Protein 1
Amino acid sequence: MPELLVDPETNALLISKGIPFEASHRHFSHALAIHPLGTLHVDQGEKEKAIVRATVRQLIDEGSSAWVGYSFTWAASLAARAGYPDDAARLLTDFERAFVSRNGFHVNGDQTNSGLSNFTYRPFTLEGNFLFMDAIHEMYLQSFTGTLHIFPAVPDDWQDCAFEDLRAEGGFLVSASRGKGETASISITAIEDATLRLQNPFPGREPEANLPIQINGELLTAELKAGQTLKLE
């Protein structure tokens, strides 16, 4: 693949050659490599991490005046992948309070007229709600690189939270709980025979496990048979 075009002044992805992202817009197509494609991500190295974070920071900081409802949830997914959990949570809250009708429909325009968007109309579309669920998933669990990251983008004020049976790439069902701001327990079930690669969700210590695991730095691996469940604490 050819190299992605990067603005030498901001270190953010360009829209096209010589065309930087300079104004609020409802679409973030220039950031497709970050989400949903995942071909550019923070685990690739410091250079790539800096580009991801600069790109997402720029589109958030440009403001939401030309956004519609789905832009908020799309930006939340991008923020989760860039490592901006507080932004992700705030954007989801803004979406829920201003762009969703009483029956749960996403209506694109700002129904509160509070300045979150210049658009105040009510066209119903589906993608905003789908992206809301995706953003929550990205905050709780990421696996698109082949390595599972649990609670990778949870804000500090989510001190106590949990999820159950979220699907991870590679053929896994994942459940986890968090208490007092720290990961408490994890359960990973293999849907098929698979090698599990997991970023250690218990930083600085080796977790207790009910099955054999291998540890290399902060990477945990395990060979799981279909139906086996690895439990970590």
Protein 2
Amino acid sequence: DIAKAYNDAELFNACKSIWDNIENKKMYITGGIGATVDGEAFSFDYDLPNDLAYAETCASIGLIFFARRMAECEINSHYADVMERALYNTVLSGMAEDGKSFFYVNPLEVLPIASKVDSRKKHIKPVRQKWFSCACCPPNLARLISSINEYIFTESDSTIYVNQYIGNHMTSDKADIHIKSSYIDNGKVSLSVKVNKPFVLALRIPGWCDQYNISENYKIENGYAFIAIKESCTINAEFVTEIKMIKCSNKVRANIGKVAVTRGPIVYCIEEADNGKNLQLLKLSNKPNFIYKDGNISADGFREQEDSALYSNYTSPNFEECNIKFIPYYQWGNRTENEMSVYIRI
């Protein structure tokens, strides 16, 4: 805010340096930040343990606040991409589907017995809690959700930027804009624009999207499609939504030989309720044959046979074919206490 108000380039560059370090070296794929319980803090670059993650709900909300401020200072779609990543994954995970219980921390791997027995993981809860002694996350989450319309658009003298594809309506001296969206389901968005005076409309091209179609002529710059609007119109956009396997940098020790499954902005996970115990034994097929249905994903894979001995001479492992079910990460823990993992062997 101060950098913008005083046009202070040095202060903005300091903020940008912090942002770049978070986005490129210290952020979980879910938009969670803060890898260690000690100080609820960052540790060192690429230290992103799945089963020890703090990734507080409030921290991801704070990241969204930070992204919004940065977006007001610099036109760069990365800021809105991170908002989206944090919102649809860690932030939504912070509240149960019935709105009655909450996660304070948001790990990417959970083994319930470890949460109860291992003192290093006492901050990890396998089920959402009704309340907390320091109850910052529930009201902070409620505040963000109730004010989400403030994160959809930003505006400059000549341009209206569409940052999030959430059904909404905005009015300015330039135009009235209605958004109808089925973005999460099929990547489709329709914008009805009633023009008050000529302006430029900028649509964010999501960072996860490789193919898209926009019904008007546009020019791409800094991750946005800029469209000159002179008269009232309806603009239809489709961002082709594909199931992807995402790997970490090999500097992230926890995820060597593993991938995360995503579809659009949604990160998926596997749960014991669907796939049985010992999720670490599951492995995706080289050709998983992903199927998306009703918000969930199924894939072809294998389950490694359990070892009977603690130590033994190495032999090639035995695998049985199986079907693996993935659910959106934000939905985990809504059915029962069970194992969960975002990353899976490949």
